[in-house]
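Final report, Chapter 2: Outcomes

The project's central promise was a pipeline that accepts a single protein chain and returns its three-dimensional structure in a standardized token representation, suitable for archiving and comparison. That pipeline is now operational. To close this chapter, we reproduce one record exactly as it appears in the project archive, with the input sequence first and the structure output second.
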Amino acid sequence: MLIEFSIENFRSFKEKVTLSLLSSSDKSLDDNLIKTDVLNNYNLLRSEAIYGANASGKSNIVFALNSLKNLVKNSHKFQKGTKIDYSPFKLDKKYLSLPSKFEVIFIKNNIRYVYGVSFTSEKIIDEYLCYYPKGRKALIFERKDTDNYRFTIDKKEQKFLSEKTLQNVLYLSNSTKLNYRKTSDVFDWFKDTLKIIGTTDHPQLIEDSIESLNKDKKLKEFILKGLNEADLGIVDISASIEKVSIEDLDEIEISPESVPNFKKNFMLKTSGEDIQLINMEIKTIHKVLNKYGDELNISFDFEEESEGTKRLFSLIGLWIDVLRNGRILIVDELDTKLHHLLNILLIKLFHDPTQNKCNAQLIFTTHNTNLLDLDLFRRDQIWFTEKNPSFGNTDLYSLIEFSPRKDKNIQKGYLAGRYGAIPFIGDERIF
């Protein structure tokens, strides 16, 4: 479970901002809360929606989490001199030489962890990991000025591991690679628990949905229910994956001309040094009536379906996995290609304790103001990004800071500019 994520000097974020999933004292929508003994008197939120104008920095929150996840997952593979993906705030010259900083606080296996890192393109500057195994803070490691380490546990072992860690490599990643058990849980949280998807449909998402579809009948019923919301004509769906190994790409040219229906069904997939050609076949069945009133089942190729149906199918497999395994799902522009009612359907699955039994969490950016409804979200679940017009940096804040009444029309207030985070459109003519 995610508690907080802080960003500093990354893309449009200049000074430190924090996205918090700690609940406020708001007493509404109790089902939207995760109750945990780990945080004593505090609860966590099951979801958060982030609003803001175009180019206000909403997506940069997603990019920041994804950047940190990728650094954790991959930095142990870096060679000496490999550049770190570094994107400082560019509208203030002094920040171009300052490190980007991230801090994430989360719960795994009923233990709270705090992990932080700062870095430039050349090296890791600072890095630290603390945890609370018995409710008390304990330091696992602290790294300052790149090469100065401090350990309070397993000192001899950790000192050896630190000496094997390059300046441009995270100690968290390298120590996990070298089988240090106290960092492996944190590494696994980034790798397995934190799931991030963007605005475009990646073939892997569709493959996940196919696997979910074929796993058991209940999953298939759930997927059909969701698809039925998107298109009332769909009564059944079938899908299969054929994996073909490619041993020598120099002799096989993969192109739309060399493979029939290349764009529709095929994708190249790499796993380590292995390369596979994946053929995905998806058929939907629509029930219609002929002119005599008889029912007919008509088969469609997946590519013939609407963009909303395809988008929902690409999401549903991951959605099920996240809910069943208590993961954290970050989605950039959830409303892309999806009807408002489909957005509500997907969000309510996280808010429903009977569907979300493992305390999964959802964080998403959106422009859909119809979701600004205090019957769907608590006030502390709604967040805004706003770019400073003079300096270009992004601010991040919650609706709870405005203390609106629970019977207030939040959508109307937002569109009227009461909470900021909307585009300024002047009266000048474009043409």
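Archive annotation: The chain has two domains: 1-199+332-431, 203-325.
This record, like all others produced under the grant, will remain available to the consortium after the project formally closes.
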